[in-house]
Specification:
By secondary structure, the chain is α+β, with helices and mostly antiparallel strands. The chain is 67% helix and 11% strand. The chain contains 12 helices and 7 strands. Helix 3 packs across helix 4 and helix 4 runs parallel beside helix 7.
Length: 429
């Protein structure tokens, strides 16, 4: 077979392997590039592998280099941790290796031609090899179709490192089996059974991890739903309180207006002036109303401002026109209500200065910034612990906020210094 034809077939086979790995990664990880870029990445990766593998290096070096290039390709095209990407590539490579060896061996057994003779039947060998590569692509496509994207790429490194040992061990076992079967006319039935078992076990590992992640995500959703119901119940109570307060204030205003009218009718102008100055100092008659042209945000901010006043907390709110905010109502409630509840709770623990500054502004992105006075906090590994190490609503509320921000693809930061806790987030709009 001419060298140019061999190179074309090799390029086609390696390209199919790249497609197999891309489809496997697409089932578990979030792509960071458009589909056309994924295709170009596979072509470039294939060209580099073919260029190096044609230089006569030993098989183990070519295999190691191919795995490295596949990993580089995935790192450029998909989001996720290095260990999670390595795990998926390893499982895919186990499947590819099994197909390369045992698809043709199985066919040789089926038609009764020894494997060592079949590999010299060039056309038959090329057709069978191509069918095996296409089978890998088909299986990977099925896996992608069945398994929806999960939080697989965000798993802890310790857990991923433990799971990763299984496909790596499988690759070593397969390599040893291939070395032992060289020179034989056929492979033994035991090797075929062991290979099938290893394939099913590797696929099962990915399925189990995915099932665990989905279960964890459902549990998180349930906890958030429960928290949303609690927040909604608090909102109803706050609305009832606002209604009663509004009726009381309205009644007070009517009584004061009647008094002022009587004084004016009697010509007691100086008395009226003093009376008005007294009313201006009466905090009970001061009602702060936030108007951002977004009813949900206005309701939350007004409610939390009233709660802050009841706790003797000075709360400053800065908003602009938020009518263009399109974030779902449930996410807005969890996000803003939790942040302000955390700030109010932190202030209530203080004996002295109690302040909250809230800024929500919509420009190119939705900016949410909240800072409040607080006791000393320890921030470790992205989690908040109080100075005494007790986990409070502050920490759990922040966990819910971070979960929602992750769904919104937002960037956020928080820190504590000089008696102030600061949280800021930018949400794509």
């Amino acid at each position: 077979m001419p060298d140019i034809m061999v190179d074309m077939i090799s390029f086609f086979w390696i390209l199919l392997e790249s497609f197999t790995i891309i489809l496997m990664c697409n089932a578990f990880l979030k792509p960071t590039r458009r589909p056309i870029i994924l295709f170009l990445g596979a072509v470039i990766n294939t060209s580099v592998i073919l260029l190096v593998c044609n230089r006569g290096y030993p098989d183990w070096i070519r295999m190691a280099f191919s795995v490295l290039m596949f990993l580089i390709m995935v790192r450029q095209l998909f989001d996720g941790k290095l260990l999670s990407q390595t795990l998926i590539i390893s499982v895919a490579f186990v499947m590819i290796t099994l197909t390369d060896v045992y698809f043709i061996n199985g066919f040789s057994v089926l038609i009764g031609i020894p494997y060592n003779e079949l590999i010299w039947m060039k056309r038959t060998y090329v057709i069978l090899g191509s069918l095996g590569k296409l089978l890998n692509v088909f299986v990977a496509w099925i896996v992608q179709y069945i398994i929806k994207p999960t939080k697989f790429g965000q798993m802890r490194n310790r857990w991923l490192a433990l799971v990763l040992t299984f496909p790596i061990t499988s690759l070593v076992i397969l390599y040893v089996l291939m070395l032992n079967s060289q020179g034989s006319d056929d492979v033994s039935f035991g090797i075929i059974v062991a290979s099938v078992f290893l394939t099913l076990a590797n696929v099962a590992i990915l399925y189990i991890i995915t099932a665990l992640e989905k279960s964890t995500e459902r549990e998180q959703d349930f906890r958030l739903l429960k928290q949303q119901m609690t927040i909604q119940a608090d909102n109803l109570k706050a609305m009832e309180l606002n209604y009663r307060t509004q009726r009381r204030v309205t009644h007070e205003f009517e009584r004061h207006l009647q008094t002022i009218q009587n004084l004016l009718a009697s010509g007691e102008y100086q008395t009226v002036e003093g009376y008005v100055r007294k009313l201006q100092k009466d905090r009970a008659l001061h009602i702060v109303s936030v108007h951002s042209n977004h009813p949900v945000i206005d309701a939350i901010l007004n409610q939390k401002h009233q709660l802050a006043q009841e706790g003797n907390i000075k709360m400053q709110i800065d908003v602009n026109d938020l009518s263009g905010v399109t974030i779902e109502t449930d996410k807005l409630v969890v996000l803003i209500a939790n942040l302000l509840d955390n700030a109010i709770e932190a202030c209530l623990r203080l004996e002295g200065n109690r302040e909250i500054h809230c800024r929500i502004v919509l420009e190119e992105e939705l900016y949410i910034g909240i800072r409040n006075t607080s006791k000393a906090l320890e921030i470790k590994d992205g989690n908040i612990l109080s100075s005494k190490g007790d986990k409070t609503h502050h920490g759990y509320g922040l966990q819910a906020v971070r979960y929602v921000l992750a769904e919104l693809n937002a960037e956020y930061t928080f820190d504590y210094s000089d008696g102030w806790f600061r949280f800021a987030a930018e949400i794509p709009h």
